[in-house]
Amino acid sequence: MSGQSKQAALTVERRDIGSAEAQALIAELNAELSARYTEPGETHFLLLPEQVASGHGTFLVAKLDGEPVGCGALRRIAEETGEIKRMYVRPAARGNGVGRTILTALEDEARQLGMTRLVLETGVYQLEAMALYGRIGLAGIEPFGEYLGSRISVCMGKHL
Fold this sequence. Notes:
Layout: E1 10-14, H1 20-36, E2 57-64, E3 67-78, E4 81-89, H2 98-112, E5 117-123, H3 127-135, E6 139-140, E7 153-159
Parallel strand pairs: 4-5
Antiparallel strand pairs: 1-2, 2-3, 3-4, 5-7, 6-7
């Protein structure tokens, strides 16, 4: 018997936001965010199916050995600007490059849609997310859109 371990197969696939896989991951994300952010009115969970429809954005699901472990979305908010939304990796899969792989796939999708800039909002209590975003080149920007006036939002962006 060899001392080598089998490498898990990581894939990222487009999925309908209404699919069972997508809804299960979104429910887990919402529960985690609701536990971290107890301030009234400080949750930004809205993402409509038409915002991730073909030609406007996308919703992606990451799988390790066929098991859904993470998700992320892209929605167009201006002609050449896309917003990353609903980034989530299940706790057991964190630290395995899943988040970085989802973000790379979202960047590829943005380029295919003609976007030249990406932005996102995260929160002050998500230090691990901010660290990941910084590693892929996102930097702090002024709050935008629905995040204007939020005391706990951290907005980041980058040019593609």
